[in-house]
Amino acid sequence: MTALFALATSLLWGLADFGGGLLTRRFPALTVVVASQTIAVVVLGVIVVATGGWTEWGPQLWFAVGAGLVGPVAMLAFYKALALGPMGVVSPLGSLGVVVPVGVGLFLGERPGVPQFAGIAVAVVGIVLAGGPELRGAPVQRQAVLLTLVAAFGFGAVMALISEASSSLTGLFLALFVQRVTNVTAGGTALFISVKRGGRALPDGSGMRVIWASVPALAFVGLADVAANGTYSVAAQNGPVTVAAVLASVYPVVTALAARFVLKERLRGVQAAGAGLALVGTVLLAS
Question: Per residue in 61-82, pLDDT tens?
């Protein structure tokens, strides 16, 4: 069950990242984050009311609040790093956030077997290579590296926090709702401040009609991200966090494959090798 739900997390995160990447070509990144997460809040609110999840209110939800505060900061740092580039360096470094939940699991006493340790090592190398790291070429700004590491730590922290935010299915719905409300509050505040300082929430010459036309895509990104957090929480609660975290971090492979088949982007040799290693690591972890 851990492997199944963790791999489902990778699929959902990979597709959400792909969809989010396409949307940020049309809208400012902060607008995409706020709009997609607002849709998720509405859907989760209905689910919480329908399932009675609000009765699960408790101090563990502070973990969800923490995840909701860290998430937007990590995402914005990641997008800023991508803007400073090059993407071939930023993307693989961003996936290193997996060391946070793995470290937490080891600190709490988890001791995977030899095949699992080997799988962790092989999968992490594969994840990094799947992003197509540029070993040669344009120099990388120090700020880009720093922002990427901040984003990676943030992504890993969200994984660690959300896995502690609930202990039941209805409690998970409530935790995800709280996380998303916090996301929208933090992101909306940042967007408001950005607009006040002269930034734009929408592309030049467009109005709300553009947002309405993009609602299906925004809904997919927001709900896929929510579902990924949910499946990861289930995976982490039903098996070793060290295994769940690594399998859930295979999402760069999914994003690269989506770009290959939808946008017809060709995989570089290093990316294909990384995808293969990630698959080998997955098999070892699932063993």
Answer: 999 999 999 988 887 787 777 6
